[in-house]
Amino acid sequence: MSAPATGLRQGRWVAFQGMLRDRPSLVLVGVLLLLVLAIGVIRPGTIGPSWVANTILFAAPLGIVAAGQTLVMLTAGIDLSVAATMTAAAYVAASQSYFGSARAVLLALAVGLVVGLVNGLGVAVFRVQPLIMTLGTGLVISGGLLVYSLNVSHQGPPAVPDIVRYVGAGKLLGIVPVSAFLWAAIATIVIVGLRQTGYGRLIFAVGDNPIACRLAGVRAWLVLLVTYVICGFLSGVAGLVLVGAINAADLSLGDVYLLPSVAAVVIGGTSIYGGNGGYAGSLLGALILTVLSSVFTLLDAPDPLKQILYGAIVVLLAALYVRTTGDDG
Amino acid sequence: MTDDAILLETRGLKKNYGAVVALRSGDISVRAGEIHALMGANGAGKSTLVKVLTGDVTPNAGTIRLEGREVRFNSPANARKAGLASVYQDVSLVPLLTVAQNLRLTGTTMAAIRPWLEELELGDVDLAEYARDLPTPTLHLLDLAQALASLPRLLILDEVTATLPADLSERVFRVARRWRDEGRSVVLISHRMTEVKALCDRATVLRDGSTVGVVDLASSGQEEIVSLMLGPAAASVVVSEGAVADTAPAPKVDPSPAVEVRGLRSGLLQDVSFTLRRGEVLGIVALEAQGQADLFECLSGNRRPDAGEILVQGKTRRFRHPHEAIGAGLVLVPADRALALLRQRSVLENIALPMVNQLKRWGLINTRAERKRVKAATDRLEIDTRAGSRVMRLSGGNQQKVTIARWLATGFVTLLCFDPTRGIDIRTKEQIYRVLRELAASGSAVLLFTSELPEIQLACDRALVMFGGRVVAELTAHDATEAALLRAAHGLERGGTGPAEAAS
Amino acid sequence: GGSNNTGGGTKKYVVGISNTLTGNGFREEMICSIKAQAKASGVVSKVIVANRNTDPSGQIADVRNLISAGVNVIVMNPSDRSALDAVIKEATSKGIVVVTVDQGVTSSDAYQLYNNQVKYATLGADWLFKKLNGTGNVIEMRGINGVSADADRHTGFTQTLASYPGIKVVKMTFTNWSLDPAAQQIKDILGSGLKVDGIWTSGIDSTVVDGYTTAKKPYVPTIGADNDAFIGDLINLKAQGLSGAAVTNPPTVGGAGLAVGLDVLQGKSHPHLINLDPAIWDNQSTSGLSELQNHYDPKLNAYYSVTYQVAPYTTYTKDDLLKCADIG
Amino acid sequence: MSAQAIARPRVAPNVARLLRRNAWTLGTYGLFVAVMIFTVAIHPNYGPFEVQSLVVGALPLAFAAVAEACVVLGGGIDLSIGAMMAVANVVAARYMNHHDFQTAILVSVLVLVGGTLAGALNGVIALRTRVPDIVVTLAMSFVWGGVALLILPQPGGGAPDGFLALASGNVLTPWIPAGIVLLIVVVGAIWIPVKLSRIGLALYAVGSDRTAAFRRGVRIGPTRVFSYALGGFFAACGGLALLMSTGIGSPLAGTIYTLSAISAIVLGGVSLAGGRGGVMGPIIAALVLTMVPADLILSGTDPNFGQVIQGTLIVLVVMAGGLAPLLRSRRRAIVPGASSG
Ligand SMILES: Nc1ncnc2c1ncn2[C@@H]1O[C@H](COP(=O)(O)OP(=O)(O)OP(=O)(O)O)[C@@H](O)[C@H]1O
Ligand SMILES: Nc1ncnc2c1ncn2[C@@H]1O[C@H](COP(=O)(O)OP(=O)(O)OP(=O)(O)O)[C@@H](O)[C@H]1O
Ligand SMILES: [Mg+2]
Ligand SMILES: [Mg+2]
Predict the structure, then answer these.
(1) pLDDT digits (tens, 9 = 90+) for C3-58
(2) Are residues B86 and B175 in the same domain?
(3) Is residue A123, in this structure, part of any structural domain at all?
(4) Of A94, A97, A96, A144, whose CA–CA distance to A118 is shortest?
(5) Could you identify the atom of ligand 2 that is nearest to the CA of residue C103?
(6) Is the same domain home to B143 and B280?
(7) Which one of B284, C67, D62, D116 is CB 3.0 to 4.6 Å from D286, fit for a cystine?
(8) What CATH number should be reported for the domain holding residue B483?
(9) For chain A, what is the domain count?
(10) Ligand 2 atom closest to Cα of C21?
(11) Pocket of ligand 2 (CB under 6 A)
(12) Chain D residues inside the 8 Å CB shell of C51
C-alpha cells in the first residue's frame, strides 16, 4: 500500500536499508543466527557440527515442500494438498518397498505428479480457486490413501526402502546429511530457475498480472499447470525424504507440514497475493521454523506459555524483518 | 496582476522514496483566480508534488502555506475540507464500489454533483455501475465532477486531459476557465503545449524534482519553456512541431502488404476493410467508441471477430490468443498501462516479458544479451529507471514508455499503437514519432490510433477515419489537417472515400 | 429407532459408528475391529460409519445423523467426556443402544468400554521407575495437550511419580500422537546432551527408539504402547540393550463394544461400565517376553496395535480385522 | 454524443446486472436447495429432528465463516479465528459453570466484548508492525491457543440449560430451531447496520483498493482494525455457539474451524483478494458443507470413500461455478473502450 508515507529518516539508515531491501535474506539469516544463539544460551554446548547436521536433516522435508509452495504462491495461488501428498507418497513408498525400492520410489513420485497434474488442470484450465481446488484434492488423497492402506497393506512387511532411508537419514562421513545435498540441489534449481529461466520469469508475471501476460502473448494456463505439477512432485519428494528420516509411515505422517509449508513461505517474504518473493526466503523460513521448534523443545516452560511465546516471537521477528527491509507487506 | 492575492505557496517541498528522490525542492505559488500550469518532463516530480500538496503522501521536508497560514494535510480528505481538491493521474475511484457508493465515501451529495455531471455530459452515466466496469476517461471525469462538487478554492488536474478525446477536453477547459472567472484557482498538469498555452496564465516548471522557473505564458515562447523543462542542452534536440514527417527518411522499403483486413465485424465494428503496408505508418482517427478499439482487439488476437478475415502477409489468420498474433508479428501497445504492466516487477522484467515467451526459452536466459536489448530500448525512449526495481514506482509517463520499449526490445513486423503517447512529455513524443518513422523505414508496419489529431501529420503517411464502425475516409498525411480529420470523424464527409477505395 | 429388516433372515441390526479422528492408525484399527465384529456376529445387516476429523459439536451432529439413518446400535469413540451426554440420551430414548469405547463419558445411559488411561500410565511409569531403581532422569512424552485421554494419562503418571521421590522428570513434551514431532523432539533432546535414564511415551514409541538407533546412543528403558514396531523393537533390540515395556491400549475395544451392544439388543444384560484395564508386557521377564512374541507380526504397520482381541468379547478372526472387510 | 459513447453502452438492464453481480451467491442458494432436495430424496422422513441436527452442526462454522468474511472483505485474512473461538468457548464455559441464566448472559456479553477486543488486537498488530496479515494472524493463532489452554487446561466447565437452549431449543414450532434464529438475529443485528453505514462502505473500499479508498477519504487504519474487531466479535459468537451445542468448554474447540471457514467464504462468493462478497453466501455455504457429510451418513455410503466423495463434490461445485466467469473472462477487453461481453 502506498497511501500514508513513512516520515523522516536519516540518510545513512536509508542507505543501509536500501542495501537490506535489495538483500532481504540477510535479515532472515540474522534472525536465524539469533535463534541459534538462543539455543546456545538455553543449553550451552548443544550447538555443534552434529547439531547443525541434524537440524538440516529435519528441516529438509519442510524446505523441499516449501519450494513447491513458494512457486505456487508466487502465482497468487496456494496448495493445501501438499501435506496429504507428502503422507501419500511416504505411505506408498513404505508399503510398496516389499516389491522393490525402485517401484516404491517411482510410485511415490508418481503420486506427487498425478496430484500436481489434477490440481494444475483444476486451477489452470477450469479456473477453480486454488484454495478450494487443493483443499478438495487434499481430502480426496487422504480418503484414497485410507482405502489404499486397507487393501494394499499387509501384503508384505512395511519398511522404508533403503535408498529412501539413505537419502532421508543417511550421513556422508557420518556427519553431512545426504538430504542436505538433495535439498541444496533443489534449492539451486529453484532459485536459479526463478531468476534465470523464462519459465521462472513467467511465474512472477502470472502472479502479478494475468492480463498483462495475455497481452504479452504468455499462455498463463500453461505456466500455472506446470507450476502445480512441480509443486506436487516436490511434495512427493519431500514425503520420501520425511519417511526416510522418520523410518516409519502412518496415515497422518505429513499432516503436520501443512501450516509450516505456508508459514515458511510467507515468513520468507513471499506475498500471498503473488508476483513478489522468492525461494531463498522460504528456505531460510524453513530453517527458522525448525530451529524455533528446537528452541521450544529445549526451553523448559509450561506448554501454554510456550505457545504464546512462539506466536509472539514469530510476530517480533517478522516485524524486525519488515522494519529493516522497509518493505511494507 | 503581480499584486494578486497568493492562494497557495510552497517552499522546498521534498519527498524521497527510499533512495529515490521524487521531489527535491518543489516550490509553487498559485494566485487566486488563475489557471496555473505545472510542467516538466516525465518523472520531473509533478504528480509527487500534487500528492504532497493534497496530503496523499507526507513530505520529508518543506512547508505549504494556504493564504499565508501554514498547513499540513494528513489525507486528501482533509485537503478537500480546506479547499484543495485534486484529480490524480491514476484513477482513484474504488473499483469494486459503484459510482454512487464512491460518491458517498467522499460525502458528496447528489444535489451537489448533479450540475457538474450535466456540465461534463456525464448525465446518463449509470451511477449503479461498478467503477471497475467503466472506461478510464469516464472515471477521470467522474473524479473531476466529484472534486468540483466540493467547490474547492484550488482545483488540481493531473493529466486529466491525457485520457480524454478532444471534445471532452474542451469541456474540462470550460470548467477551468469558469473556475478562474469565479476567482478560484486551478493547477493543470499537461504535456500538451497547445492546451497549456491556450488555457493557462502562468506555468511553474519542474526539472529533476526541483522548480527551475515560473514563466508567464502570455509573454514567453514554447522554446523557452521547453528549454526550462529539459535543460538548455537537451532542448536543442527537440525540433519544432510538424517537422518529423518531412525529415523522416524515405520509407517504402518493401511496399508489400503487412496486414489486410477484409469486412471485419466485431462489437461496434460494422464492416471494415483496409490494407496496412510494410514501411508505412497508418493513422486511425475516430471519436470515442467508433469501433477502433474493437479493431485493435481483433488485430491483437485478444478477440475473435464475428465476421471478416485478417490476412497477415497474404495468409488468412484466425487468432485464438494474442500469443498467436504476436507469433504472426502483430504486437499491441495499449493506452491503459495498468493492463500491460507487471506492477511489482522490474523495468527489465517488464520489457523482457514477451521475449521470454517468444524465444521459447525454458533453459537459462542469456542475461547479458537480454540486458543489452533492454538497455537499447530504454535508452532509445530515455526511460527514467531510477525507481526501476518496481515498475509501479515509475512516473506515469515512464510507465507508458515501458509498454512501448517492450516491443522495441522484442521486435515485431506490425506495431499496433492505441494512443501510445498519452501522458508522455513533449520531448519523448517527438522521440516516439521518430521511432515510429524509423521502424517504418526499416520495413515494419505501424497502425497508430491517436486522440491527438496533430500526431497524424507528425507521424503518419496516411490516415483512415472511422465513424460508426466503418472507415469513412482515407486521407494522405498532407491532406490530414485537423479540420479535415474532425469533419470526417463526425461523419460529415458523406459519400467520401468508402471502404472499398480505402482498402486499395 | 426401530429395527429395519432389509437384511432379512437373522441379519436385522444396523450398526452406526462415530469417530472423530481420521488418518490415525489407532482409530482406523478401532473401526476395523467394529466392522470385523459386525461380520462375525452374523446379525448385522449394515454398518454406517461417521468418520471425519471433527470436534464434540461435530460428533453430536454425526450421532444425530446416525439416529436419523435408523441405526439400532451406535459405537462411538467419544471426543469429550460430557459433551455427548445429551445426544446419547436422545439416542437411548429412541431405543438405540449406545456404546462408548476407548474413552469414557459421564452419561449413565451409555454402555462404556473404557480403556483405563490412568492405569495405562501408572502401569508403564511404575515399571519404568522400578527399572531405574527409583532414581534417575526421565522424559514424559505425552499426546495432545488438552485431550482428556492425555490428561488422564498425565494424572496416572504424576500419581506414580509421587511415590518415587528419586525420579526426576527432566523434560515433558507433547508429541500430538504424531511421528514427526516426536522424532524431532527426541533428536533435540539427544543433541542437547541432557542426561536421560528412561523414557515414558504416550504411544509414539518406536519412533523414539529409532531416534536412539540413528543417533547411535545407548538405549535407555522405554515405555510405549502395544504398537507393532515397538513390540518388534523390544524383542529384536533386547540384545543391543533395549529394555522396556509395552502397555496395551487396544483399539479393538471397538469390536468389544459392538459385541456388548449386540448382546444388549438381543436381551443379554451387561454392566454399563466395563473397565478394560491395560496389561503390560516387558521384555525382561520371560512371561512378558513370551506375550510380546505371541503378538508380534512383522507384516503389520509400525503403529498397528497388536492387541487383536479383547477377551471375552470379540469373536472375529485376526484376518478379518486386518482386512477391515465390510459385511459381504 | 461522445459522452454517450464514453458512458459505455449499457450491457444489460439493472435486473440482469443484479443477477450477474450476485450470480455466485445465488448459485450458492441454488446449491443449497439442490442438496436439500437430494437429502429429502434419500431420507423421505426428513423432519424437525434432522433440521435441528443440521443447525446444531452448522452453527459454529456459520459464525466462523461470517467472522472470516468480515476480515477478508476488509482486505485482510485471519488465521486465528478458530483459536479465538476456543478462547471464547473456554472463558464462557469456565465462568458460566454452575451459574444461572442471567449470569450466563452477562458472561457472554463480556465474552463478546473480549472477542471484539481480541480481534481488534490482531488488526492493530498487523497495522503497527506492517507485517503481512497472514503472518500476524498465523502467529496469533498460537497465542490464542495458548491462552485457551491457560484458562482451561482440559475440557470442562459448563453452562446453564437455559443458555444451551438458545441454540438447541426451538421457536414456536419444532421446525424452527432456536439456533438458526439466533444466527439470523445476531448476524442481522450487527451486519445490516454495518453494511448500511459508512463504515461498512469503507470496509469494502479498503478491501478493494487501499490507495483509492484513502483518496476517497477513508481512514485506512481504523477501518482495518474495525474489520478485525468485527471478525473477533463473530469468532466469539462461534465460541459461544460451540458451548451451546456441547455444553462444555474445550481448549481445542474451534481450532478445526479456521480452514473450513475460509473454504466456506470462498464457496460463499467472498473474494480472498478482498472487497467482494457478503456474509449471506458464507452462511449458506456453511450449511452446505455441513449437509454433505450428513448425506454421506444418511445414504450409508461406504465410509472409506467419504472424504473422497466430499473432496470431489467441493471441487466439482466450484468448477461449475467457475465456468461462467471462464467464458466471460475470455472476452476481457485489453483495449479500453472495446465493447466487451
Ligand atoms: N512510490 C514510489 N517509489 C519510488 N519512486 C517513486 C515513487 N513514486 C514516484 N517515484 C519516482 O519519483 C519521480 C517523480 O515521479 P512523478 O510521478 O512525480 O513524475 P511526474 O512528473 O508525474 O511524471 P509524469 O509526467 O510521467 O507523470 C519518478 O522518477 C518516479 O520514479
Ligand atoms: N483417542 C485416544 N485415546 C486414547 N489413546 C490414544 C488415542 N489416540 C491415540 N492414543 C494412543 O496413542 C498411541 C499412538 O498414537 P496414535 O493416536 O498415533 O495411534 P497410532 O497407533 O500411532 O496411530 P498412527 O498409526 O496413526 O500413528 C496409540 O497407540 C494409543 O495408545
Ligand atoms: Mg505524473
Ligand atoms: Mg500416530
Answers:
(1) 444 444 577 899 999 999 888 888 989 999 999 999 999 999 999 999 888 889 99
(2) yes
(3) yes
(4) A144
(5) 3
(6) no
(7) D62
(8) 3.40.50.300
(9) 1
(10) 1
(11) A 250-252; C 24-26, 102-103, 117, 143, 149, 177, 202-204, 225, 227, 249, 303, 305
(12) 303, 306
Least-confidence region, from B221-230, C168-177, D247-256: B221-230
> Does B223 lie in the same domain as B162?
yes
- The domain tally of chain B equals 2
Q: Which of B238, B261, B292 is the last residue of a domain?
A: B238
Does A8 reside within a domain?
A: no
For residue A153, what pLDDT is reported?
A: 58
The pLDDT tens digits of the residues spanning A230-269 come to: 999 999 999 999 999 999 888 889 999 999 999 999 889 8
Tell whether A2 is covered by a domain.
no
- Tell me the residue range of the domain where A145 lies: 55-325
pLDDT of residue C7: 40
Cβ-defined contact of A217 to B322 (cutoff 8 Å): yes
How far apart CA A212 and CA D76 sit, in angstroms, is 25
Read off the pLDDT of residues D182-214 as tens digits, 9 standing for 90 and up.
999 999 999 999 999 999 999 999 999 999 999
Q: Is there a domain that residue B290 lies in?
A: yes
Interval B118-137: pLDDT, tens: 888 888 888 888 998 888 88
pLDDT at A11: 61
pLDDT at B314 (0 to 100): 86
Contacts of B369 in chain A (CB under 8 A): none
User: Cell numbers 537440524 correspond to what residue?
Assistant: A55
For residue range D42-64, what is the model confidence (pLDDT) as tens digits? Answer: 988 888 999 999 998 999 999 99
How far is the alpha carbon of B6 from chain D, nearest alpha carbon, in Å?
A: 26
Answer yes or no: do D6 and B296 touch at CB < 8 A: no
- What are the grid coordinates assigned to A241, written together? 525424504
Please check whether residues B139 and B276 belong to one and the same domain: no
- Give the cell for residue B216: 508567464
Q: Let me know if residue A201 belongs to a domain.
A: yes
Chain D residues touching residue A271 (CB < 8 angstroms): 132
- Asked if D246 contacts D253 with a C-beta cutoff of 8 angstroms, the reply is yes
Query: What long-range pairs does B485-489 form, CB within 8 A, spacing at least 24?
Result: B485/B285, B485/B453, B485/B456, B486/B166, B486/B453, B488/B285, B489/B285, B489/B286, B489/B287, B489/B290, B489/B465
Domain finish residue from B190, B208, B238: B238
Of C270, C250, C248, nearest in space to C261 by CA: C270
Asked if B105 and D216 come within 8 Å (Cβ–Cβ), the reply is yes
First to last CA, chain B: 58
Q: From 1.10.3470, 3.30.310, 1.10.12, 2.60.120, which CATH number describes the D23-327 domain? A: 1.10.3470
Q: Is B360 exposed, middle or buried (0-12, 13-18, 19+ CB in 10 A)?
A: exposed
Q: What is the pTM of this model?
A: 0.88
C254, C307, C316 from C310: Cα distances, Å: 9, 7, 10
D50: which 3 cell numbers?
434432522
Top-confidence range, A8-17, B16-25, D48-57 = D48-57
Domain map (residue ranges) of chain D: 23-327
Q: Give the Å distances, CA to CA, from D323 to A122, B131, D262, D320.
A: 11, 24, 21, 5
- Predicted pLDDT at B483: 85
Domain span at residue B325? Answer: 251-329+415-421+446-504
Tens-digit pLDDT profile for residues A36-52: 999 888 888 888 888 89
| DSSP class per residue in B134-198 | S-HHHHHHHHHHHHHHT--SEEEEES-GGGS-HHHHHHHHHHHHHHHHTT-EEEEE-S-HHHHHH
Asked if A256's CB is within 8 angstroms of C180's CB, the reply is yes
CATH of the domain at A313: 1.10.3470
The ipTM (two decimal places) reads 0.86
Please tell me whether residues B223 and B259 are part of one structural domain: no
